[in-house]
Hints:
Layout: H1 13-20, H2 24-41, E1 45-46, E2 55-56, E3 60-68, H3 69-93, H4 98-101, H5 107-111, E4 133-140, E5 146-152, H6 159-172, H7 174-179, H8 188-198, E6 210-213, H9 222-232, E7 235-237, E8 242-245, E9 248-251, E10 258-259, E11 262-265, H10 288-293, E12 298-300, H11 311-314, H12 317-325, E13 332-333, E14 337-338, H13 342-350, E15 355-359, E16 368-370, H14 376-388, E17 393-397, E18 403-408, E19 411-420, E20 422-425, E21 430-432, E22 437-441, E23 455-463
Parallel strand pairs: 3-23, 5-13, 6-7, 6-11, 11-12
Antiparallel strand pairs: 1-2, 4-5, 4-20, 8-9, 9-10, 14-17, 15-16, 15-17, 18-19, 19-22, 20-21, 22-23
Protein name: Circularly permuted ATP-grasp type 2 domain-containing protein
Organism: Pleomorphomonas diazotrophica
Pfam family, one: CP_ATPgrasp_2
Amino acid sequence: MNGFGQGVRPAYRTIQAWLDSSDPENLRRLQKEAEFLFRRIGITFAVYGDAEAEERIIPFDIVPRVLTGSEWSTLSKGLTQRVTALNRFLADVYGAGEVIRAGVVPADLVYQNPAFRPEMVGLKLPHDVYVQIAGIDIIRTDDKDFYVLEDNARTPSGVSYMLENRDVQMRLFPDLFAETRIQPVDNYPDELLASLRSLAPASAPAEPTVVLMTPGPLNSAYYEHSFLADKLGVELVEGRDLFVLDGVVYMRTTRGPKRVDVIYRRIDDDFLDPMVFRPDSVLGIPGLISAYRAGNVTLANAVGTGVADDKAIYTYMPDIVRFYLGEEPILKNVPTWRCREPDSLRYVLDHLPELVVKEVQGSGGYGMLVGPKSTREQIDSFRAKLIADPDGFIAQPTLALSTSPTFVGDGIAPRHIDLRPFVLTGADKVRIVPGGLTRVALKEGSLVVNSSQGGGTKDTWIIEDPAEGTPPAAGQAQSQSQAGG
């Protein structure tokens, strides 16, 4: 029942041997124990509009996803390159606009983008860092190449699952960790805090005060907000806990006002300051943007970063890397058709049953068409949307995504996966903990890994490169599927 085929990669041999020696009933028991642990921890997410299950546990798969040190080295270099280019791009579009004058990126995609914030124009941020925390979604194809699927530069979520997955995996399978050198991820909170402190404004004291700002307990990611604040050792605050006086942000405490220097905000731009954005927002801090523009507080991530993770801007990322860094991209983009271009639109309309079509502003697996899995009615409906608003969509081929062995109801079976590494940019360096959040499409044949669409998560192991030519353990069974990883 091990779910491995003859082409199993060397990185998975320890997992293969473990599964070969495991009793299926024991694996089921351990899977239930993992679910119990997550429920006891209280790690949940909300599905808006779902009356039957407002709070859910994201399914956790007990079979880890494995990458080698050399694979991770390539990914790390590519991620560092890409996020460096993203920060250069944001500093430019809110500054001189050279990338637009050079014709690399069309002006309308930036200046007419709903996420572009004119309030940021001309504002100089510490060390020109706009995206302090990035979540870059990576996929791998059957040819073993890595591709960037999406850049998350606003308020990327999921790091709590990365940390909790590792903790639960270590509790359930201490023997596996004893016999395998797996790079740790538990230093992420320390690395994040160091990055945030390094970007405090020049007016901040030597020990800057960092807080994590949440919209409140009703937010779908509130568990993560409280989890991270606890791990970072900082205050978890709502907008009502902060105020602005003479261009400086303060936190209300039992000992009186305390200056705040860095706000790790998990709240969208629109709700940050009712004096600048939505006047009906009760989640933000009146005057926050004035303090921000005065250089007295750092916001992570910066206001207006959404213009960089727009799916239309994504299609220009290889050119953006070349423009700012003078280098070829290490990580490829998924081939993409821009439906705003007439030739691309004609191709997409002619090949809808073969393609994945996404809304430029969509997220969470919503607002997309997976052609090969869609009905004629769904395809016709999307065709009408494309014709009505071609600028609002991109299209991509249905890639042969790699799979990872996954524990399902009747044993081990291949399921499609992606990876979200978390990239931290500070004043001194880019930090990336070895691993990330692996998301898995638990439905057979599904390519959608989002938790809101029935996906689950896995622990992600980065291990030493196996010795070349090491034979599989004796007696390892072969079956119908392959570990692509």
